[in-house]
Amino acid sequence: MKTEGSITTEVDEKPCKSNYKVHQTVSSQRFEQLNLVELEPFTGRRHQLRKHLSGIGNPILGDKDYGKKPLILNGKGLYLHAYSLKFTHPFTNEAFYIKDEFPLNFKKLFDVLQ
């Protein structure tokens, strides 16, 4: 996977764009390597990020719908997390920035999250 880039593949026949940046790559016996990727969607199509990453050959770990069979983790969920959200409220025009901690399963894989 390139260290950063933009994906502009249409989703459901509608234009869309997602930027990505790889923050860390770790070796994995089971999966060869895993990437910690920051994603920034510019549009809000259904499953956009999942479809975009799968489309460039790097599906999200645990994605049963758009992933590859060896990357599906039965009972462990999808390794996709909204770390932060930034938006303007549509009625009050108030700016919101919400930030969350990374889940433990992410911290176990990537030491940059410690």
TrEMBL record:
* Superkingdom of this protein's organism: Bacteria
Looking up InterPro entries in the UniProt record yields: PsdUridine_synth_cat_dom_sf, RluA_PseudoU_synthase
What protein am I looking at?
A: Pseudouridine synthase RsuA/RluA-like domain-containing protein
Organism of derivation: Winogradskyella damuponensis
